[in-house]
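Board notes, transcribed. Complex of a protein with calcium ion.
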Amino acid sequence: MTLNPFRRWLDNLQKRRRNQRRSQPRPRVRLHLEELEPRIVPDSTGARVLDIVPVEFRNLPFDHVDVRFSETINATTFTAVDVQITSPSGSTIAASGVTPLTADTFRIAIQSPTERGTYRVQLGANIEDVDGNLMDQNQNGVNGEATGKSPSRIACCCV
Ligand SMILES: [Ca+2]
Ligand SMILES: [Ca+2]
């Protein structure tokens, strides 16, 4: 039984090491949990037109168009100058005014046209959201592009 003394020696050695480890002061790890502060991520996204209504007029006075944006708009930056309405024959219909209905919806007043057919309505791109971002209708991350105007929307007119 020559193994027993060796085993005993090894057991003792392991025990001593374990005891040594226990008796040594352990480094204390303290977790300091901190509440996350609310952070405001600056808005850099330009608004886009979601809806233009109505899309069809039948034997009704065609004197306004309502437009809804993807977000709140700075109403001072949306005026009749930002509206382009083209008649079926290609002439321009002037917008006579823009009135906010809600934070993101506006009514564009126009002079009643006399032509039947399809009218193109384009808006932008210098209309700003409340953070000063110009429109980004094509959502490519570049605001205020001339090509970023709202897509041609159709309003049919029956007069
Ligand atoms: Ca925005
Ligand atoms: Ca764009």
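The mean pLDDT is 85. The longest strand covers residues 117-123.
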